[in-house]
Design goal:
The complex is a heterodimer of chains A (about 400) and B (about 425). With about 400 residues, chain A is α/β, with parallel strands linked by helices. Chain A has two domains: about 200 residues, Response regulator (Rossmann fold); about 130 residues, Response regulator (Rossmann fold, 3-Layer(aba) Sandwich). Helices cover about 45% and strands about 20% of the residues of chain A. Chain B is about 70% helix and about 0% strand. In chain B, strands 1-2 form a two-stranded antiparallel ribbon. In chain B, α8 packs parallel to α12 and α9 runs parallel beside α11. Classes of the chains: A alpha/beta (about 400), B mainly alpha (about 425). Chains A and B meet through α1, β3, α3, α4 and α6 of A and α5, α8, α11, α15 and β2 of B.
């Protein structure tokens, strides 16, 4: 017993002496990533993490982040929120109080971004959710921003596009009633379409529940309703099933989607059935130019697949944070003051030139930016087709 | 079974023999005072000690996170934990054993409430000072206390009653939505419910009422499922209760005036540490009294053999119904507290994942035991946070632990152990002094 204790003490003392890094304290800026690494949407978490890794590489290559003529080292801390609301709140609180980050990027999904935003706002830490579309995320929260456009903008964009492109009259909508994003967007779209074509022009408004895999009854209703096209704002795994089943059941019209289609997995799962379809999104990977192209090529080279919109939006969010930190002019070292300065700088960003378009924040913390209509090409790539600005 | 158990106990006795010998005769009061000194020490000297040891901050959850993140800091973190927690608790516990015993003995001459309340006050002080160091600790602690309530109430059905109920997240959802609707509807200017109806200063008074309303709604939900389903047993009840969980979830997804899939946000911040602590204590106290009452013993009889219990004049249907509704009531209260801690709920929060988490806590901690529920809830919650730096591997380590527990202690860590408050707070004598 006593010998064991002595050994432990000895090991501790030697270990302590051998840990030189323990004594050095460098000037670093910490940025937190609150992402769903595990849980329902791990691909989203992975995209966010990879974008952050690439961003950190850039900063390291530049020798650090320069603020007011002084170089700071940057540390990115990725925290898993398990795609659960309470875990997102815990992760945000940990990043704020334990890791003492200057700003947080994420969480991505609204059901995590709302509780995490609450913590960030209460404890005065700027937070950008790259992907959350629920208005509640940023509403009345001066410290919380977002990196994407909102449903009330996207719905009309899609409706207008279909009207101009095909001249259709009768629409069908199929959406997941249990999931917050598809449901919100489906409603906004219905409203926009009926505004264009008069009441009753949405001839089928069908819903299902998360993890359903058989849509034949809804699709049969849609086909029988005589709809000319189908709008389905679903995620990649459901898109593949819906498109394939619709075509098997003999639906002839085009199927149109929203930014949730913009994942590399969509084409992988859906295959040729999805070629030639349109959806609205934040950016188009194929045929991109400039910084967007550079980002996509680097990402493809490093991780072996084309980045989806989450990756691109996270990248932009990180760049916005970087710009904001740089434009504070000087970091005092007092975390509270610095966070406040970063928040003010974020709110003042004008015409930020991101890879998903130019953005300026409204007083609510929502960006004003353009949407892109993308066509899935015969090679399965996301081709730029048209852009729509507010 | 009996032989097995005593063998396990014996082995544990020899393994932790030195600790048992050391701890013999130290009353709970002395340990608590030791812990109080430890947390006070951390608050005053923690920063300085952390700086001396080269730690970036005071280790937030007993150094586990720092150790996993930066292995080079393991020695510093261990020394910190040993100096701040280990030494004061072990030494002071021992030193204070004699006065502690004297005080405890004096207190025992009063009604039992006096020593219990005194112990609770010290316990609260420990929690308060411990969580005062960081907001993250505070949030984790609050959620852990709520998890204790949930685990204990589920243990009532799965452990004491011996049925396998899967509807607990559903009860939690009913409670969370009811309490949120009351509080957000009355006191918050909100998109869903419009202007606040009552002035804000009434909020804290209304909060317990809202929680109880949540509990009652959950109990009513339980009544709905209990009437048809108690005609069945075993697997069938599990299936019916699972169906209930799905019904509740899709009900909230489709009720647009409750926010639908978008949920409710902006619950007022009333679920602070004292509130959650009081409700947890109340929950443990009442459930413990319930399971030690005649009704609770009848419940155990129903579990062991329903026919025999019926023959021995136990009204089995009534007993099961009461226990089920009672468990649902506490799940509803816990749901309300959960909603006001996270300050956002959506139907997706109360899904199968939550059920798995609750079941894991119950079976990890131990069936049919209040201690077990506390141990299960605290360890699963703290492990989940402490192993954060492992990222993905966390989900290998925790299930592995569960498997090991299920293999070596099939009924959980501390199963079938009675929670006797009197025994807990009374003075401890050394075995030889006990005659």
């Amino acid at each position: 017993m006593r010998k064991g204790l002595l050994l432990v003490v000895l090991i501790l003392v030697v270990g302590l002496a051998l840990s030189p890094c323990a004594w050095a304290k460098a000037k670093t800026i910490k940025v937190g990533i609150n992402a769903p690494i595990t849980g329902d949407i791990p691909k989203v978490g992975e995209g966010s993490k990879y974008a952050a890794e690439m961003w950190l590489e850039d900063i390291k290559a530049a020798g650090g982040l320069e603020v007011g003529g002084e170089k700071y080292m940057v540390e990115v801390i990725v925290e898993d929120n398990e795609s659960k609301p309470e875990s997102a709140a815990k992760a945000a609180t940990k990043l704020i109080t334990e890791d003492e980050v200057l700003a947080i990027v994420g969480p991505q999904a609204s059901s995590q971004a709302i509780p995490a935003g609450e913590m960030a706002n209460n404890y005065g830490t700027p937070m950008i959710s790259p992907w959350s579309t629920n208005p509640d995320t940023t509403k009345d929260r001066p410290f919380v921003f977002r990196g994407c456009f909102l449903d009330p903008f996207q719905g009309p964009v899609v409706a207008n596009f279909i009207k101009d492109e095909f001249g259709f009259q009768k629409a069908a909508v199929l959406y997941d009633i249990a999931s917050d994003y598809p449901k919100g967007l489906a409603e906004v779209f219905k409203e926009a379409w009926e505004k264009l074509n008069g009441a009753g022009s949405v001839v089928a408004f069908e819903s299902f529940t998360t993890k359903d895999a058989d849509f034949s009854s809804q699709l049969t209703n849609i086909i029988n309703s005589g709809a000319q096209f189908l709008f389905t704002p679903q995620y990649y795994n459901e898109v593949a099933l819906i498109v394939q089943q619709a075509q098997e059941l003999g639906f002839k019209g085009p199927i149109v989607g929203s930014d949730s289609w913009g994942s590399a997995e969509t084409v992988k799962l859906c295959g040729e059935a999805c070629y030639g379809l349109f959806f609205s999104t934040h950016y188009a990977a194929a045929g991109a130019t400039g910084a967007t192209k550079e980002f996509i090529e680097r990402y493809e080279k490093k991780y072996g697949y084309t980045p989806d919109d989450v990756g691109a939006l996270t990248w932009d969010a990180l760049r916005i944070v970087q710009t904001a930190i740089e434009s504070t002019g000087k970091l005092t070292g007092d975390l509270e003051k610095d966070r406040m300065a970063v928040k003010d700088a974020l709110a003042n960003i004008k015409e930020f030139d991101g890879i998903t378009g130019k953005m300026t924040f409204t007083p609510d913390g929502d960006p004003i930016k353009c949407a892109v209509i993308v066509r899935i090409s015969e090679k399965g790539e996301f081709e730029f087709y048209k852009s729509a600005c507010p | 079974m009996v032989n097995d158990k005593s063998a396990v106990v014996e082995r544990a006795n020899t393994r932790f023999g030195w600790f048992r010998a050391y701890a013999a005769g130290v009353p709970l009061l002395a340990w608590l005072l030791g812990a109080l000194v430890a947390v006070l020490l951390e608050q005053t000297a923690g920063d300085v000690l952390a700086a001396i040891l080269g730690l970036p901050k005071v280790p937030v959850l007993f150094g586990c996170m720092i150790m996993l993140k930066e292995p080079t800091l393991i020695p510093s973190a261990l020394i910190f934990v040993a100096l701040i927690y280990g030494a004061p608790i072990l030494l002071l516990g021992k030193v204070l054993a004699r006065p502690g015993n004297w005080v405890a003995a004096r207190l025992m001459s009063w009604p039992i409430a006096v020593p219990v309340i005194l112990h609770l006050v010290v316990l609260y002080a420990i929690m308060y000072f411990w969580s005062d160091v960081s907001l993250y600790r505070m949030l984790t602690l609050r959620l852990t206390l709520i998890a204790i309530m949930l685990t204990l109430s589920l243990n009532l059905i799965n452990g004491y009653m011996g049925e396998f109920s899967c509807s607990h997240p559903g009860f939690m959802a009913l409670g969370a939505y009811a309490a949120s609707t009351v509080m957000v509807g009355l006191f918050v200017n909100d998109r869903l419910f419009g202007e606040a109806l009552l002035p804000a200063f009434l909020g804290p008074f209304m909060f317990p009422v809202a929680l109880v309303i949540g509990g009652v709604v959950a109990a009513l939900g339980a009544l709905l499922i209990a009437i048809p389903s108690f005609k069945t047993r075993g697997d069938y009840l599990a299936i019916i209760s699972l169906a209930f969980l799905f019904i509740v979830k899709s009900m909230f997804e489709n009720l647009q005036f409750l926010g639908g899939a978008r949920g409710i946000k902006g619950q007022p911040d009333y679920a602070d540490l004292p509130t959650v602590f009081c409700w947890t204590v109340l929950c443990i106290w009442i459930i413990n009294n319930f399971v030690r009452s005649t009704l609770g013993k009848a419940l155990n009889a129903v579990r062991d053999d329903e026919m025999a219990a019926e023959a021995m004049t136990v009204n089995t249907r009534f007993t099961k119904m009461v226990a089920f509704l009672f468990a649902a009531f506490w799940a509803g209260i816990a749901g309300g507290l959960f909603a006001h801690t996270v300050r956002f709920i959506n139907p997706g929060t109360f899904d199968l994942k939550r059920l798995a988490e609750l079941l894991a806590m119950v079976y990890f901690g131990g069936l049919n035991s209040v201690y077990g529920s506390i141990v299960g809830a605290v360890s699963i919650n703290l492990l989940g946070e402490m192993l954060r730096p492992l990222a993905l591997y966390k989900w290998i380590v925790i299930p592995l632990l569960l498997i090991l527990v299920m293999i070596y202690r099939p009924t959980g860590l501390v199963a079938f152990k009675e929670f006797n408050v009197r025994k807990l707070v009374q003075p401890k004598r050394k075995p030889e002094e006990e005659v």
